[in-house]
Amino acid sequence: MQSSLKLVDCIIEVHDARIPLSGRNPLFQETLGLKPHLLVLNKMDLADLTEQQKIMQHLEGEGLKNVIFTNCVKDENVKQIIPMVTELIGRSYRYHRRENLEYCIMVIGVPNVGKSSLINSLRRQHLRKGKATRVGGEPGITRAVMSKIQVSERPLLFLLDTPGVLAPRIESVETGLKLALCGTVLDHLVGEETMADYLLYTLNKHQRFGYVQHYGLGSACDNIERVLKSVAVKLGKTQKVKVLTGTGNVNVIQPNYPAAARDFLQTFRRGLLGSVMLDLDILRGHPPAETVP
After folding, report:
1. Which of 2, 49, 95, 172 holds its CA 20 to 30 A away from the CA of 194?
2. Bigger pLDDT: 123 or 248?
3. Dist CA 154 CA 243 (whole Å)
4. Rounded distance between C-alpha atoms, residue 135 and residue 143, angstroms
5. pLDDT per residue over 46-71, tens digit each?
6. Residue in 145, 181, 146, 197 with CA at minimum distance from that of residue 267
7. What is the pLDDT of residue 98?
């Protein structure tokens, strides 16, 4: 990414709108900070943006004045990006690129926040063309800095897609769990049941009880084992387990907790449990304190 920087006029950083204040890679700012910078908070359809003004004020306090919320699946607000990029480049000194008529933008961000989806959305809107890059629901689809992809004719504008890069050190356990819930790391590396437990805790804390209705539970519950058992029974996700007793082996049917946890996480990620703002604690002045060693 750094070696491609001399070809670039502007940086677009894509991040998940459910975690607008946490989980961004601070090294991006250090290593790519000289270029004009636009922060795109994607997946806005999944985020509770009731406190959007506070989010913008918080980001402005961190020096991020150019911010756009988008939903790249439905091309929502994506049309604002190229005019803003053009304005940012127009206000900056292009160094040795001032002879080049075309603009080149580098798209960066942590894994699975929608960088490739953004590129495809821009192409749909400005070139009426289909997919240029692969997209997927798990991190690691883009594995290398790609060649330039045209997304606009006037102005002539190309984008460089890049692999998702997490910070080498996550600032806290809670930040790590938020990133995991948003799918920026592979689930099995954290543990589906651990993530499901944190998700249940977060939903209850923020009084987002959509899961109660979705899974037909009697009421809200803070016991993850009880919730996953109900989910498993409702979805028919059970498994036979051999139990050794005094009279020999007996087959017992048990809830498949990992399968239920996976469904709970995937249902949340599709927005079926309602919109959520995972950074509500930071907005209300209670940042996560526990540091990962």
Report:
1. 49
2. 123
3. 69
4. 12
5. 999 999 999 999 999 988 999 999 99
6. 181
7. 66
